[in-house]
Amino acid sequence: STFQGNTSDREGGAIYISGTDVNVDLSASQFISNSTQNSGGAVYLSGTATTFTVDDVFFQSNQAKSGGAIFAVPATLERVTRDTAITGGNLLVVHLSLNRFGDRLVL
């Protein structure tokens, strides 16, 4: 899937997820030129006992005050694998537990 040119006045330019015991698998996707006025230019994730897996995802030119590509608080970033690239924006993750990086992560 491609998420391109989305905007938000709050959090999560393309995707906003909040809850308890949330498991998010993000794969084979592109996030290009998404923006928000606050946090998470492409993806905003918050909640308790939340896991977030990123696999073969491309982030380019996403913009936010905090976390141009991804803003996650609190969350467990379960896996970042297989040619995930984040370019032209910043990755900001707060209160995060990282379990595993896989094949290739390009920042």
Structure, explained:
With 107 residues, the protein is mainly β. The two termini are 21 Å apart. Strands 1, 4, 7, 9, 10, 12 and 13 form a seven-stranded parallel beta sheet that branches. Strands 3-6-8-11 form a four-stranded parallel beta sheet, with no helix packed on it. It has a two-stranded parallel ribbon with strand order 2-5. It has strands at residues 2-4, 7-8, 15-20, 23-32, 35-36, 43-48, 51-60, 70-73, 75-81, 84-87, 92-93, 96-98, 105-106.
**Mean pLDDT, nearest integer?**
76
From the helix content, strand content and strand pairing, which structural class follows? mainly beta
Instruction: Determine the fraction of residues in helical runs and give it as a percent range.
Output: under 10%
Radius of gyration: 12 Å
Low-confidence stretches: 94-107
The number of helical runs is 0
What's the end-to-end separation, in Å?
21 Å
In one word, what is the shape? globular
Oligomer: single chain
Beta content comes to over 45%
**How many strands appear in the DSSP assignment?**
13
Q: Main beta sheet: strand number and arrangement?
A: 7 strands, parallel
What string, H for helix and E for strand, traces the elements in order? EEEEEEEEEEEEE
Lay out the secondary structure.
Layout (H helix, E strand, L loop, with lengths): L1 E3 L2 E2 L6 E6 L2 E10 L2 E2 L6 E6 L2 E10 L9 E4 L1 E7 L2 E4 L4 E2 L2 E3 L6 E2 L1
Parallel strand pairs: 1-4, 2-5, 3-6, 4-7, 6-8, 7-9, 7-10, 8-11, 9-12, 10-13
